[in-house]
Amino acid sequence: MLRMEKYCENVKNDAYGGSIELVEDGITAIENELEARKPDDVMGEVEGYVDSILEVTSPILPLINMLNKCMIFMESYREEGVKPDVLREKFITFLETVREEQRQCVDKIGKIGSRMIDEGNKVSTFSTSGSVMEILKNAVQKGKKITAVAFEARPNAEGYRTLYEISDLGIPVTFGCDALLCKLVPGSAMFFIGADAISSTGEVYAKTGSYLAALACREFGIPFYVAADTNKFDTMSLLGFPIKDSHRPADEVTAQKVPDNSRIINISFELIPPSLITGIITEKGLISPQAVSLLMEPEKMNDTMVKKLERWKEESEKLN
Q1: What angle do CA 53, 266, 209 make, to 5 degrees?
Q2: In what order do the strands lie in the sheet with 147-151?
Q3: What pLDDT sits at residue 318?
């Protein structure tokens, strides 16, 4: 049974192959804790879970938005004097609603994205994304015969997971290291990536290597699409907060001894400028990067959560 301590360890180690399963497991871990502990102070307990997850997570917006929704839910019951067992059950029901909403968003993205793929297309992708996999799965279910290109990606060589998942759909995959982007991408009908956050100005925060993929697509005239539901839109950027960096330990990159006057940089995510992005496939449809801010709802940010995120960003800057 997944509990909060193990979940936070997984998040800290960047063990998830995409934000979809990250949120799913986060919901499961919170539910399991509440069922096992049955706390009298449900609000305090949930806020503690929010703090624990924020302490270890990168700027992965679906997760942060899920935590924001948890704070909003709890705030709505603060003055009502609901019994702990009743509030706990209401909150678990709420979490299941959030889980189902995410699944519906991914399903819609899969249907929209698959319509963009024609019979015989070669489709390229980078890193691991549940939304991209849903697009490819829908294309296969429609009987479209396509081929794919995928690449190694850090951390933990997660590109191999992408290779196996696409192959399991019956799609032939050509696979190579990240340095072969310009060799393998030409001839692709389109390139798909997922995203962990999208700023109000349309910058896409995705796994390191995605920027190079976007540049390669610009060079070869290949449309570059981002598959991301609106839960990945970073409302905090609309309020002036920059997306914080995601520095990882150097030993994930190499076991080699580094000279004392040198250092290894290991960053999991990077920002792709909107000028390189053809479009963003959301559950609301295909939009341009410039339209992102129009779909943001800053009024739905919980005040307590905003303060937590301010401290979260400040602590990150001290570490880096």
Answers
A1: 95
A2: 173-176, 147-151, 122-125, 190-193, 224-227, 279-282, 285-287
A3: 59
Encode pLDDT of 96-151 as tens digits: 999 999 999 999 999 999 999 999 999 999 998 999 999 999 999 999 999 999 99
d(CA 194, CA 125): 9
What is the rounded CA–CA span in Å between residue 237 and residue 233?
9
The rounded distance, in Å, linking the Cα atoms of 96 and 245 is: 31
Amino acid 270 reads: E
Which residues does 48 contact at the CB level (< 8 Å), separation at least 6? none
Residues 62, 25: Cα–Cα separation, whole Å: 12
Under 8 Å between Cβ of 280 and 228:
yes
DSSP string for 75-107? HHTTTTT--HHHHHHHHHHHHHHHHHHHHHHHH
Among 278, 270, 145, 262, CA closest to 211: 270
Q: How many residues does the chain have?
A: 320
- Checking DSSP bridges between strand 197-198 and strand 204-207, what pairing results, if any? antiparallel
Q: Exposed, middle or buried by CB within 10 Å (0-12, 13-18, 19+), for 300?
A: exposed
CB 114 within 8 A of CB 138: yes
Instruction: State both tokens at 313.
Output: 């960003």
Partners of 68 in the beta sheet? none
Give the pair of three-digit tokens for residue 309.
Answer: 């995120």
Largest CA-CA distance found in the chain, in angstroms, rounded: 63
| Active-site hit among 14, 196, 229, 234 | 196
| pLDDT tens profile 97-111 | 999 999 999 999 999
* C-alpha span between 140 and 169 (Å, rounded): 7
Give the residues across from 117 on adjacent strands. none
From first CA to last CA, the distance across the chain in angstroms is: 34
φ and ψ at residue 274, rounded to 5 degrees: -60, -25
- Whether 303 is a known active-site residue: answer no
Residue type, 53: I
